[in-house]
Amino acid sequence: MRLSRYFLPVLKETPAEAQIVSHRLMLRAGMIKQASAGIYSWLPLGFKVLRRVEQIVHEEQIRAGHLPMLMPTIQSADLWRESGRYDAYGAEMLRITDRHERDMLFTPTAEELITDIFRAHVTSYRDLPLTMYQIQWKFRDEIRPRFGVMRGREFLMKDGYNFDLTKEDALHAYNRHLVSYLRTYERMGLQAIPMRADSGPIGGDDTHEFLVLAETGESEVFYDSEITDLRFGDREIDYDDHAQCRAVLDEFTSRYARTDETHDPAIFEQIPEERRRVARGIEVGQIFYFGTKYSEPMGAVVTDGEGNRVPVHMGSHGIGVSRLVGAIIEACHDENGIVWPEGVTPFHAGIVNLKQGDVSCDAACEGLYKALTAAGLEPLYDDREERAGAKFATMDLIGLPWRITVGPRGLGNGVVELTSRKTGESEEMSPEAAVDRIVAIYSGAA
Ligand code: P5A
Questions:
Q1: What span, in angstroms and rounded, lies between the C-alpha atoms of 27 and 48?
Q2: What is the CATH number of the domain that holds 127?
Q3: What's the number of domains the chain is made of?
Q4: Residues 286 and 384 in one domain
Q5: Is 0.90 surpassed by the pTM of this model?
Q6: 318 CB under 6 A from ligand 1?
Q7: Whose CA is nearest to atom 10 of ligand 1?
Q8: Tens-place pLDDT, residues 298-343
Q9: Spacing, Cα 28 to ligand 1 middle (Å)
Q10: Most CB within 10 Å of its CB: which of 5, 44, 128, 240?
Q11: Residues 187, 156 share a domain
Q12: Is the CB of 217 under 6 A from ligand 1?
């Protein structure tokens, strides 16, 4: 993409309404624009990051054997009356009446609708296990929407639902989700710690929230510092192997880590004092096992091996896709702007032309642009007639991990400059070597 043809409405001033750094930077970098309280438009740059986050979520869900699908945002209230949640959900649910005076709602979550799909089509245990998921917009009429996309009213969620014959199988689905979530967040450059939490309006006793530690997080968390040493890394997992998934859950829940809702000071105080941590975290996901809470009242039953009709065991599993964009910025920024992890960056590299209109600079930039594009990467070429300082400031603000700077002096010596956004370190090399280096980084070879 050439910046001269892009829509990147960067702001010079820090917007007064934004209280936390991710919200400020998303507005300043022209990623989002508020449409009304807690509801945002995703401008081209923000939308690109949102899509990258979504893509990682999809890939890891599919790797775990879960089936993508899509359900509507507007649902009939009648289904929610069957589960008893229509009245129980309260003021957070956006209720809508259609022209025929039918009660509808904008989905805050989709346990009822997926259970309705399941009961219409599945009758035998032979069709289990089954896990389906979607990435779809949700609406919760939060009393205090704030912090930009972190606590929105309309937000994008990955919501998945498992159907199993037995509690044991459903707990395997729970463990499998925990494993796949660890992989998912690490690919985004985040450490998200599973913590024992409260299940709220979704229900059930077994639930973990995934928290990214950040001062601006909305949840207070209590943990044993040893938990932060754990990394999932690139271990191979067989998602059908119950024992393997269980072992990962055991490992990642082996140290005390709880949100304030389930915090138990008596247990916490047994941890050696130097390892006790009280901090804040951003909830980027939550997994639930709730047994037959929905299948029983809604009649989602299957015949088991002995011919008995039994309600299925279920769980649901959510990732805050739009919230993650803010959470990644909270974890990855400096005083000059965003510092995207390579896994989610909107463009792989920026090209800065220090002397637009200079024949050799323009030609070198075009060459870099073509070579990176031909290698399957997306560069952002700043081809505007701007001062070098302004071009650098924009690149720093939008946070691309790599910048290639092209100027007449370097080109005289046959070199361009490759700069890491994270470390600020620059290295001179030939344009070809710069392309090779960037290609190697993104193919995981560097
Ligand atoms: C699990 C999937 C559920 O709704 N039902 C389907 C279950 N879980 S949850 O914890 O309530 O939400 C899942 C994740 O969605 C994100 N989230 C939000 N993101 C932005 N703005 C909000 N107002 C908001 N509310 C929830 C969180 O990341 C949460 O973990």
A1: 15
A2: 3.30.930.10
A3: 2
A4: no
A5: yes
A6: yes
A7: 286
A8: 999 999 999 999 999 999 999 999 999 999 999 999 999 999 999 9
A9: 26
A10: 128
A11: yes
A12: no
